[in-house]
Design a protein that fits this description.
alpha+beta, Protein Transport Mog1p, Chain A, six-stranded antiparallel beta sheet, two-stranded antiparallel ribbon, 2 helices, 8 strands, 46% strand
């Protein structure tokens, strides 16, 4: 038996055989500024473990803190999206390479069947330029009717 996956933008379809799991990642990029291209990445976990919002987020945040060089947490807590769905966020700074500091806002959304991670990466300068826009984009996230919550 095969399963057909039709992507959200309907650019293509693909029939995969049993045993393959959907590990979809969506990446959106802003215009380049001073050699830096801010981005927002949305990942979908169809088998969230643990399944609850706070537990899922806290587990992921613990992994981030233990693995990212120079991890410094700036903010953590609940967030309400535009559709009134509850989410959980963490904002942190880290140092991917010597002398380079990046900032990331990560928002976790858990529905009945899936967990979504929305991660925006930016620099201090580009956050000042696009922070409001990035916040609006993240808060616009929703799971449409007929999606994993239904």
């Amino acid at each position: 038996m095969s399963t057909e996956h039709i992507l959200i933008n309907r650019a293509f379809s693909l029939k995969v055989t049993d045993g393959w799991k959907d590990a979809t990642v969506y990446r959106f990029s802003a215009a380049e500024d001073d050699g830096v291209r801010d981005n927002i990445v949305v990942t979908v976990d169809h088998e969230p473990t643990p399944p609850g919002l706070v537990e899922y987020a806290e587990t992921a945040i613990r992994v981030l803190g233990n693995t990212l060089q120079g991890y410094q947490e700036l903010k953590r807590g609940r967030l309400t999206l535009n559709d009134q769905r509850s989410a959980y966020e963490v904002v942190y700074r880290w140092q991917p390479t010597e002398g380079v500091k990046q900032y990331r806002q990560v928002v976790f959304v858990v529905s009945n069947q899936a967990a979504f991670t929305i991660a925006a990466t930016f620099t201090k300068k580009t956050w000042k330029m696009r922070g409001t826009e990035i916040g609006k984009i993240i808060k616009s996230f929703s799971v449409p009717s007929g999606g994993p919550d239904d």
